[in-house]
Amino acid sequence: MADGRSASEMAYAHIRDAILTGTCEAGTMLSEVSLANEIGLSRTPVRTALALLQDEGWVTLYPKRGALVQGLSERAIAELLDARYVLESTGVQRSSLERRTALREPLEAQIAEQRASLERGDIPAFIESTIAFHRAFVEIGENQVMLELYDRLGDRERYVLFRLGPKLIARHDDIIAEHRELVCELLQEDLSAFRETLRLHMSDTNGRLVHPLPPPDRPR
Hints:
The protein is mostly helical. The protein folds into 2 domains: 7-69, Winged helix-like DNA-binding domain superfamily/Winged helix DNA-binding domain (Arc Repressor Mutant, subunit A); 74-206, Four Helix Bundle (Hemerythrin (Met), subunit A), CATH 1.20.120.530. Helices cover 68% and strands 5% of the residues. It is built from 11 helices and 3 strands. The chain has helices spanning 7-20, 32-39, 43-55, 74-93, 97-119, 123-139, 144-152, 154-163, 165-170, 172-186, 192-206; strands at 29-30, 59-62, 66-69. It has a 3-stranded antiparallel beta sheet with strand order 1-3-2. Helix 5 (97-119) packs antiparallel against helix 6. The mean pLDDT is 91.
């Protein structure tokens, strides 16, 4: 392939992106033949891609019928938000003030990029920027396992954010203000305000309550 990807990788990327962005909505029955014609590939790589997407929970395969697109249930979305909150707040809690201070400039650059993306209505660019913004809170905790877990949630987060597209634009100013507030609170010794702002930010953006964490144990 011209871009170095195999046929099955191309098929996987095409179908995955269509599901995450909402082009193929939950409840849609996908046909191997139609997908192969649409992508310009044979049915074999499409079949391989659909099998992988089934393993990831995005489709359910039905022999001789096709693949039914699955979405995320209300409970799955609520659990996703709680998991993100735990990973992000824990990463920040375990980081040093020095590492948090060094993060300020790149986070402010991402906020500027987010504002520009929202102003021009470029939802995909905003989504990638905001995922990177929140991922940084986990990364500074310097726990590779936590970071790997967070990255595994990335496509679920994309799925949810694409469905919030109009709301993201409507909350344009609030989202940017909340991101800026998070950066300011990141530089404080007491991170309780950061955790609460993060919780409220996730709750307000997604329209679902994110549960607070208990205060961290004090050293004895």
